[in-house]
Specification:
alpha/beta; 7-stranded mixed β-sheet; globular; 3-stranded mixed β-sheet; 35% helix
């Protein structure tokens, strides 16, 4: 059976639901889901293999990085454009409750420079009436060149089968880029680090140090099949350490337990997770 392929970039404003969509299309949590800004720093690839078809989804940094930005964010912009250039199609994801036509028009104008088919996905349709979505589709159709429209709830997995079936009809004959059992271009260490980083983002709230990093120090399978992981949470200011540890170490304990349970679910084995908070020079 000849192999077929399709690469799809998913773009949209921060928190539109890109990571949730890719995770649910792939069936595993490969991309961090969090309401904090700039959560996805790298272009993370999710892979779905269905019969002879390989669908490659590229989760990009927020579409706001299409604009000119300061030097500190240049990596995010480069990752966004790299993902877009690599893809065959572009899915523009919109939180239906945050719809802004003028903002959409400007971003689509930039994306049109790539000469790729652009489809729009309205996300979180479970939160609004269908009557609110149809006029928006008409407005976009009248003024912009858009290939196809979808209405979904990524969180509740509503409408995802429609997207998958659409993409399967667009695949073309090509060798697969990834192996049959691969679900991401990122290795296991990257994914476990991201899981911990996600729970840090969840538990720290407004006091969050955005430049924290989670660095793996040990990733070792034991003789009994258990997985031993040691991670360092790197901070550039010691005052963050107290925030991350929490009163009597309760916050870091919660982060460790949540991370350990999530990694155990993903790897289907018992996890021994050890976390240390250290200062580094930025």
């Amino acid at each position: 059976m000849r192999k077929k392929l399709l690469k799809i970039s998913i773009v949209g404003k921060t928190n539109a639901g890109k990571s949730t969509l890719i995770n649910n299309l792939v069936g595993e949590k490969i991309s961090v889901i969090n309401k904090k800004i700039n959560t996805t720093e790298d272009s993370i690839i999710g892979i779905v293999n269905i019969k002879e078809n390989q669908l490659i989804f590229i989760d990009t940094p927020g579409v706001n990085y299409l604009k000119n930005i300061d030097k500190k964010k240049i990596k995010l912009k480069q990752n966004l454009w790299h993902g877009l250039n690599e893809s065959d199609e572009i899915f523009y994801l919109i939180d239906i409750k945050q719809y802004n036509f003028e903002e959409l028009r400007k971003n689509i104008s930039k994306l049109n420079e790539l000469n790729k088919e652009i489809s729009i996905i309205f996300n979180k349709n479970d939160l609004v009436s269908k009557n609110l979505i149809l006029p928006k589709i008409k407005e976009i159709k009248d003024k912009l060149k858009i290939n196809t429209f979808f209405s979904i709830s990524a969180k509740k997995r509503l409408g995802l089968d429609v997207i998958t079936n659409y993409l399967l009809n667009k695949t073309y004959y090509s060798k697969w880029i990834y192996k049959e059992n691969e679900i991401s271009d990122k290795d296991d260490i990257f994914i476990t680090n991201e899981i911990t980083r996600n729970f840090i983002l969840t538990y720290i709230h407004k006091e969050i140090p955005y430049n924290i990093k989670v660095i793996n120090k040990v990733f070792k399978y034991l003789k009994n099949g258990d997985l031993k992981i040691k991670q360092n949470i790197q901070i550039n200011n010691l005052r963050y350490k107290k925030i991350i540890l929490g009163k009597n170490g309760e916050k870091i304990k919660d982060i460790r337990i949540k991370s350990q349970n999530e990694i155990s679910r993903l790897f289907k084995t018992k996890i021994h997770l050890y976390i240390n908070v250290i200062k580094f020079d930025a």
